[in-house]
Amino acid sequence: MNLLKCVRTSRPIIKHCVYGPQFSSFNKAPLLSKRYYSTQGSSKSLVLVELTPTGKISVATLASITAAKKLNSHVTALLLSTDLEESHQEVQSTEGLDSVLVLDNDANKNLDRHQFNIAEYLEPLITELQNEKQYTHIWAGHTAFGKNLIPRLAGSLDVSPISDVTQVHSENKFTRLIYAGNALSDVESSDQLKLITIRPTAFERAQKTEKKAPVDKFQPKSSFEQDKVPTWVKDELSKSDRPELGSASIVISGGRGLKSGENFKMLYDLADALKPRAAVGATRAAVDDGMVPNDLQVGQTGKVVAPELYIAVGISGAIQHLAGMKDSKKIVAINKDAEAPIFQIADYGLVGDLFKTIPGLTEKINQNK
């Protein structure tokens, strides 16, 4: 994709360069302000560890560690859980970490670990830590956790956040997605601290290693004032034998073409035939129509997935949905409309009646088991 246009932002220390077919001119005027400088060779990264409801390190955190290591910097993982020794062991054994920092404060040890998913609790703690340690980069996944916390930190620390990063070029330069993934923007920042959320599907997951990173303890001077921030009440999690959407190697998604929630049973039957690797997703249109619950939504305002195989059934291919799945390794589209936009990005396309195609495909797979 060719570089087509550079855009000055309102903040003078940020430079944006936008790539995309909808931009037809290229402005070569210098955009860097006098405040620009480089921290090359002196970077210190802090990765904010996000845990799953079961206490496991999240896929987004593993990808964040990989992104941070691209700077060849010292990488520290901040683990805020105070009661899960298993989580400590798992984080310590993650490749790419030079150290692990854990919360050590008697005033906060009686808090439920879920309370540490609330940005109002975390922001003052991390602000205090940053003022003490002076990290050059703070990383988080572009998930509900990261999208809630990083902007709040940016306001507290007076820096511009850089969101949805897909490439790390240097300590100051990153590529991020804009316009629902239809254009790429090169962002060059001279903020002394870079606050970054990364797209989990754009980076490999950090692997486990036999070597364990050393653990340090952070003792914040201030304690949380529980009466001034929201309180975690409970998680209501849907239970399924199928893998979670973000980690499944095969995702079968349905759109409005399925017409009703009862017809999603065809997709569940196909996923069962492909067990244990397949999960079922849906478009926002299907969710808004009440066909399936919103935890199945894939897209710009849902979950971002990049499985080995993505099967789009009865999906037209709106850009909001494509933003959540177009990084899939192989895309198969099944739609009766040969002009549907989904076929433009599909590796394989089948024009036909999904109500005949999906049951037939399921039957063939079961016969060949």
From TrEMBL:
Q: Which Gene3D superfamilies match?
A: HUPs, TPP-binding domain
Q: Which InterPro entries match?
A: DHS-like_NAD/FAD-binding_dom, ETF_a/b_N, ETF_a/FixB, ETF_alpha_N, ETF_asu_C, ETF_asu_C_CS, Rossmann-like_a/b/a_fold
This protein's name:
Electron transfer flavoprotein subunit alpha
Query: Coiled coil where?
Result: none
**Entry note: cofactor:** Binds 1 FAD per dimer.
What is its biological role? The electron transfer flavoprotein serves as a specific electron acceptor for several dehydrogenases, including five acyl-CoA dehydrogenases, glutaryl-CoA and sarcosine dehydrogenase. It transfers the electrons to the main mitochondrial respiratory chain via ETF-ubiquinone oxidoreductase (ETF dehydrogenase).
What GO annotations for molecular function exist for this entry? electron transfer activity; flavin adenine dinucleotide binding
Per the UniProt entry, what are the Gene Ontology biological process annotations, in alphabetical order? fatty acid beta-oxidation using acyl-CoA dehydrogenase
Assembly and binders: Heterodimer of an alpha and a beta subunit.
The entry's family comment says: Belongs to the ETF alpha-subunit/FixB family.
Question: Per UniProt, which keywords does this protein have?
Answer: Electron transport, FAD, Flavoprotein, Mitochondrion, Transport
Q: Per the record, a Pfam family?
A: ETF
Cellular component, GO, one term: mitochondrial matrix
| Obligatory cofactor(s) | FAD
TM ranges are: none
Q: Where is the Electron transfer flavoprotein alpha/beta-subunit N-terminal domain?
A: 45-241
| Record: residues binding FAD | 256, 283-284, 297-301, 314-321, 335
Q: Where in the cell is it found?
A: Mitochondrion matrix
